[in-house]
Amino acid sequence: MESTRKHLIELLTKQEGHISGQQLSEQLNISRTAVWKHMNELKKDGYEIEAVQRKGYKIHGFPDKISENTLQWGLETRWMGHQLYHYDQVESTQEIVHQMAKQGKPHGTVVVADEQVGGKGRMARSWDSPKGKGIWMSFLLKPDLPPVEAPQLTLLAATVIAKMIDERSDLEPQIKWPNDVLIHHKKVSGILTEMQAEQDTIQYIVLGIGMNVNQEEEDIPSDIRYKASSFKIESGLDWNIQKTIQHFLTLFESSYDQFIRDGFQSVKEDWEKYGYKIGENVTISTMKETWEATLLGIEPDGALRARRKTGEEEKLYSAEIHW
Ligand code: BTN
Asked: Are residues 142 and 267 in the same domain?
C-alpha cells in the first residue's frame, strides 16, 4: 500500500478522539486537499471515517470488504504480495497471473478474486469458487530451480496451508498426497501448479490456491459433498478471509525462503507431520493400474513411497489415492 495511506490509517487508528485535517497534513507532509482525497479513497474501501467540522476525523471501523489496500494493510512480508491485485470476478486467477508473467511482473506477485466463474482444478477439472466464500488466489514465482523440482513447491504450499489452519484453529488438517488439504477426511483446499519452462530453466510458475473458507453445507455442490467441505463447516466458525490470506502469505514467504536456502528437507518434515494415511492401507490408481498399497511416506525429492501387498516398494511421481 502506498506509504502515505498506511501512515494515515496508522495516525487515525492511534488517535483516541478526532484528529484535525491540519494535524494530519502536517504529520504526513501533504496538503489538506490531499488528506481529504485520501479520506474519500479510504471510505470507498470500506473504512468508516467520521468527519466533524472543526474537530477533524475519527476512524470507527475497518472494512470487511477485501481490496488491494486492505489486503496489503498489515501485511508484513518482504516480497510476497508486494504487487497484489484484487478482482471482484474473474474467469480464473491462473490466467491473469500467466498474462502478468508475460508482462514482466515480479516474483511474488499475487492475484486474489472474490469469485471465479471458470475456476480450474487439477486434471482439467473445474474448481467451484463462489463469491466471497473462499480464497481464490494465484501467485507468480520465479525460482532458480531445475524444472523437475517444481512439484516440491506444490508440496510446500500444501504444508503452508495445513500449518496456517493449524495455527488459526483447533482443527487437525491433513495432506493427502500430493497436495489436497483435508479436515476430518474432507477436502477443503487444493493447489494447481502450472509451469513455463525451457529445457533446464523454469521461466516462471503460477501457483494457484483454492481454499473453501466460509461455505455452508448447501454451498458445496451436492455431488462432492461426501468428500469436500469448508473451514466454516468443520469448525462451526466464520473465518476472516483477509486475515487468513495475510497469514498464509506470511507463512508461505518464510517457508519458500527456507526451501530455496536449505532445500526440500524442512518441507518434507512439515509435510510428514500432516501426511494423510501414512502407514495405512489405501487404494491407489496410477496411469497403468489400480492397486492396494500401504503408504510409507515421501522421498527426499517429494515422491510418494508405497508398498504393494507383495512387499515390493514403489516410488510414485503421479498417482491418485482413492477416497
Ligand atoms: C485442485 O484440483 O485441487 C486444485 C484447485 C486449485 C484452485 C485454485 S483457485 C485459484 C486458482 N485459480 C484457478 O482457476 N484455480 C486455482
From this structure: yes
Residue-wise pLDDT tens digits, 90-149: 999 999 999 999 999 999 999 999 999 999 999 899 999 999 999 999 999 999 999 999
Judgement on whether residues 192 and 292 belong to the same structural domain of the protein: no
Whole domain around residue 7: which residue ranges? Answer: 3-61
Rg (CA), the chain: 22
Q: Within this chain, do residues 110 and 164 fall inside the same structural domain, yes or no? A: yes
CA-CA distance, 74 to 80, in Å (whole number)? 13
Q: Is the ipTM of this complex over 0.85?
A: yes
- At 101, list the grid cell: 508473467
Q: Which of 111, 129, 212, 320 to mutate to test the pocket of ligand 1 (most atoms within 8 A of CB)?
A: 129
Which residues lie with the beta carbon below 6 Å from any ligand 1 atom? 92-94, 116, 119-122, 125, 127, 129, 136-138, 180, 190-192, 208-210
Ligand 1 atom nearest the C-alpha of 91 is 14
